[in-house]
Design a protein that fits this description.
Layout: H1 27-34, H2 38-44
Length: 59
């Protein structure tokens, strides 16, 4: 049926930051400062898509 939709459609995409829910003094932030995961990130590089946005992984 053609015409205008009367029902509202839910949003398909959401914009948010994974940093926001984690408090600045959280234990995981302290661990992140001292834990070097660069070798693991290098090992997993082939599993990420080569098109589109890059993964949001800090180094």
């Amino acid at each position: 049926m053609m015409g205008f939709q009367t029902d509202s459609q839910e949003r398909l995409f959401y914009s948010f930051s994974l940093e926001d829910p984690v408090p600045q003094n959280h234990l995981l932030r302290g661990i992140d400062r001292y834990l070097d995961l660069s070798s693991l990130r290098q090992h997993l590089t082939d599993h990420y898509s080569h098109t589109g946005d890059p993964p949001l992984i800090r180094s």
